[in-house]
């Protein structure tokens, strides 16, 4: 990770879960980290706890469902830091919205955040790298095991899974377009299985149900997922860790 010391990383959805853990670790490794979320109070608290870290963390308010806010965020990063070297597309959400009975607005919201927001951030990060002739940048797409299979008898996550299947296609598309652009910018998709974060509690909106899910076997942690990102980021420039599928040892799906 030494070659990333002093360089700039953007982490979307950095107020909790994977995003919070990733932002913390990158700052500890010496990077200048910008963490964004709709509500940045938790990021500011985290930044204060990292004031003696090797790197820094700054919070920027941004709703990645809104393109104008993403563009404004990248403009602010350009003015303050020059641009982005690493982009971690972590922001994502899930509504309990089955395909036969879900609400259209919930479907739309998942696609706006999980797909369109990810696309806009990836595009703007690439533009930032090109403008500064950064040839070794890295774009991360936080996918999910739900982007690789459907869990039986779980209609509430079918639309969410559709957004994550889209991320699989985007990963391959980015890889091909980056190759065609003759750049060494890398792209990595990380697909976690069940990990204990706030995500499941928000999706189910019932803490007792979430507790039941987590009680079935030992699940992964946000730190486990962060370890996989650091592995891909710290790999030699000649190595592209393209797709990481990571599951609990006892997980069956």
UniProtKB/TrEMBL annotation:
Gene3D superfamilies to which the protein is assigned, alphabetical: NAD(P)-binding Rossmann-like Domain
SUPFAM superfamilies: NAD(P)-binding Rossmann-fold domains
Keywords: Oxidoreductase
Pfam families per record: adh_short
Annotated GO MF terms: oxidoreductase activity, acting on the CH-OH group of donors, NAD or NADP as acceptor
Protein family (similarity comment): Belongs to the short-chain dehydrogenases/reductases (SDR) family.
Record's protein name: Dehydrogenase/reductase SDR family member 11
Annotated organism of origin: Dreissena polymorpha
